[in-house]
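User: When convenient, might I ask for sequence and structure tokens for a protein?

AI:
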Amino acid sequence: MDAVRKEIISRLEREILPLEGLKSLATDNHINLGFRPIEASFPNAIFPVGCIHEFLSSSKQNLAATNGFIASLLSKLMQFKGASIWISASRTLFPAALQQFGAEPHQIIFIDLKKEKDVMYAVEEALKCTRIAAVIGELKDITFKESRRLQLAAEQSRVTGFLVRHQPKIVNTIACVSRWRITSSRSELADGLPGVGFPRWNVELLKVRNGKPGIWQLEWQYNHLHEIRKNIASISQEEVRKTG
């Protein structure tokens, strides 16, 4: 009976996941992040593509760390499809810096607009384009209804969307598959050498549908993520409540 019960639960999970925006098609290119603990946090231990991921940022320093982490993800995604689109109304990103994280800036189309409502429209239209790998939209505030449109567009085109919300007025619930917070961490130099060490981030996976949130301290070196400390902790229910 236990085997039958497990099979029933497994079948129900497979049927429910697509209804929650976690579709997995045979035509999808599953990316290898090169860091299994994060991948293991997602259903089936696969980083979800063709859906929306949300990133929260509270300072310019952490916004830079967020952009670096997203660039490391883009370097994996663009191995299969050669272009992405970065849309913003107040971009501070220096394109050439993306090379440090394995993403080629000449493969990214930067669209700079004047109003955030224009960014919303552009992100939705870009997500409908099946020829690109990902769309990054810098949006401070977004309603659940607006985010639902973006999620549906991503599901249909199988394009992955990253929403960067820098200092939002309200951290509300939106229709994203995951919610992240990336903060900068002090780098360290080997053998007391002068200069700047490899970029380090505190990576918090605050929420993930049918997955397991967690916190890691990571270092980016030689186009790979390396763990500095083991998974610090699972996100508490109180932290989940505070973040929407």
Summary: Residues 2-19 form the longest helix (18 residues). The first strand starts at residue 52 and ends at 57. The chain has six helices and nine strands. Helices lie at 2-19, 36-39, 60-77, 116-127, 144-157, 237-242.
